[in-house]
């Protein structure tokens, strides 16, 4: 079934810049060039909240994972944390010296990453509301920054035409993807954390593997792509473009599934709900739209279940190995019906054990890398001592 328009929210007085669903789908947040943040209720006849506080355009909004907070970034150079209730109280974070274009919570809700026209990416603690550190290797405005699902990496996209991958612990840039022909408007991690998708002013969407740092897929559109969002199953990607359309890409097949026309003028932002059954979009036409996903409805619930239990998937002939789960499921669904519970239990236990082993391996890898860093430091110190000794001897 095709996606269908479910709700239509009017209330902003200027272009909508950003949309995000709360965890329970009861609320939808939107930011706008009108300097306001709106919280819309998904229940009929419930009134919307308008939050006033920013002194200039609100560029980005996001609910915290629990849904008890909303973060926003603005052209007034500040980040605000709001309690999405009638009072609409907020606290202000100040550290950027330019427009804040992007806010994103880590999946544990403890950290916040922001991106700004001051060319930096900044990381904050949410509860102590403290600025922690800056990542500053971009040489132009940074439009977007996101944590990986496990919170260990950060990806950022900039008008310097690069997408950079950072290690949150060492605060170093691990890799720069430079294949974009234009500015990079938006970037996000695949739910599996193994790849990223980036949208650009060169009308493309590119998907890269972050383990091998190679390009996996490349979609060529005919208009600037402003925003994108992965479906929680990891099988689909929705984009918002300047030609006023939203497009649904099937990542398994590597093709365009649907083109949706709803907005008049550029579609500026788009986001799937946490369950994937809805997605919201905003546009320069001041409107916020909510769409029912409808496609593949029967399948993606199962996909989510399988992904959670840690089953491994054969990446047979697809460009995106991690994104093969849906296809794999369709093949096996019929044969599974008559299987006994013991077998399934055994498989689950095996999957859990494997997951545990993988976790332990990760810890080991991290430990080794820390040891390597220490070793390098020791070597450097030793070298320095020897050089100093040489100097002293020479001076004598």
Helix-strand blueprint:
Blueprint: E1 4-10, E2 16-21, E3 27-32, E4 37-41, E5 49-51, E6 58-63, E7 70-74, E8 78-82, E9 90-94, E10 100-105, E11 111-116, E12 121-125, E13 130-135, E14 142-147, E15 153-158, E16 163-167, E17 172-177, E18 184-189, E19 195-200, E20 204-209, E21 214-220, E22 225-230, E23 236-241, E24 245-250, E25 255-261, E26 267-272, E27 278-283, E28 287-292, H1 297-309, H2 325-336, H3 341-395
Antiparallel strand pairs: 1-28, 2-3, 3-4, 4-5, 6-7, 7-8, 8-9, 10-11, 11-12, 12-13, 14-15, 15-16, 16-17, 18-19, 19-20, 20-21, 22-23, 23-24, 24-25, 26-27, 27-28
Family: Belongs to the WD repeat POC1 family.
Keywords: Coiled coil, Repeat, WD repeat
WD repeats: 9-50, 51-82, 93-134, 135-176, 177-218, 225-259, 260-292
Q: How would you describe the overall organization of this protein?
A:
The protein has 396 residues and is an alpha+beta fold. It folds into 2 domains: 4-295, YVTN repeat-like/Quinoprotein amine dehydrogenase (Methylamine Dehydrogenase, Chain H); 351-395. Helix content is 20%, strand content 41%. The chain contains 3 helices and 28 strands. The chain has helices at residues 297-309, 325-336, 341-395, and strands at 4-10, 16-21, 27-32, 37-41, 49-51, 58-63, 70-74, 78-82, 90-94, 100-105, 111-116, 121-125, 130-135, 142-147, 153-158, 163-167, 172-177, 184-189, 195-200, 204-209, 214-220, 225-230, 236-241, 245-250, 255-261, 267-272, 278-283, 287-292. Strands 1-28-27-26 form a 4-stranded antiparallel β-sheet, with no helix packed on it. Strand 10 (100-105) and strand 11 (111-116) form a beta hairpin. The radius of gyration is 23 Å and the shape is globular. It starts with a strand and ends with a helix. Mean pLDDT is 84; it is low at 300-339.
């Amino acid at each position: 079934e095709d996606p269908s328009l479910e709700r239509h929210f009017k209330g902003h007085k200027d272009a909508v810049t950003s949309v995000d669903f709360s965890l329970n789908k009861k609320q939808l947040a939107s930011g706008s060039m009108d300097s306001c943040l709106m919280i819309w209720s998904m229940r009929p006849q419930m009134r919307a909240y308008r939050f006033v506080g920013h002194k200039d355009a609100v560029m980005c909004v996001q609910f915290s994972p629990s849904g008890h907070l909303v973060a926003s970034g603005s052209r007034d150079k500040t980040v605000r944390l709001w309690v999405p209730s009638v009072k609409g109280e907020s606290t202000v974070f100040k550290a950027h010296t330019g427009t804040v274009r992007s806010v994103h919570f880590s999946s544990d809700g403890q950290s916040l990453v922001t991106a700004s026209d001051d060319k930096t990416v900044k990381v904050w603690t949410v509860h102590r509301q403290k600025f922690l550190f800056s990542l500053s290797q971009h040489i132009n405005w940074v439009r977007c920054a996101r944590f990986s699902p496990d919170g260990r990496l950060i990806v950022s996209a900039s008008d310097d035409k690069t997408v950079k991958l950072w290690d949150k612990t060492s605060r170093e840039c691990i890799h720069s993807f430079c294949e974009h022909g234009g500015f990079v408007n938006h970037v996000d991690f695949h739910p599996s954390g193994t790849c990223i998708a980036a949208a650009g002013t060169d009308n493309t969407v590119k998907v890269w593997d972050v383990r091998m740092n190679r390009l996996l897929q490349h979609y060529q559109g005919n208009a600037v792509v402003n925003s994108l969002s992965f479906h929680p199953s990891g099988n689909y990607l929705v984009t918002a473009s300047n030609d006023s359309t939203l497009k649904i890409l099937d990542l398994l097949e590597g093709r365009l599934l649907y083109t949706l026309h709803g907005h008049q003028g550029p579609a500026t932002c788009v986001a799937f709900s946490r369950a994937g059954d809805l997605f919201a979009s905003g546009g320069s036409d001041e409107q916020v739209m909510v769409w029912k996903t409808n496609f593949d409805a029967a399948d993606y619930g199962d996909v989510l279940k399988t992904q959670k239990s840690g089953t491994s998937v054969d990446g047979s002939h697809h460009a995106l190995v991690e994104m093969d789960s849906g296809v794999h499921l369709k093949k096996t669904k019929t044969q599974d019906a008559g299987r006994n519970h013991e077998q399934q239990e055994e498989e689950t236990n095996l999957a859990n054990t494997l997951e545990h082993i993988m976790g332990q391996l990760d810890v080991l890898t991290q430990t080794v890398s820390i040891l390597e860093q220490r070793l390098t430091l020791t070597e450097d110190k030793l070298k320095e001592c020897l050089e100093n000794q040489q100097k002293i001897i020479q001076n004598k």
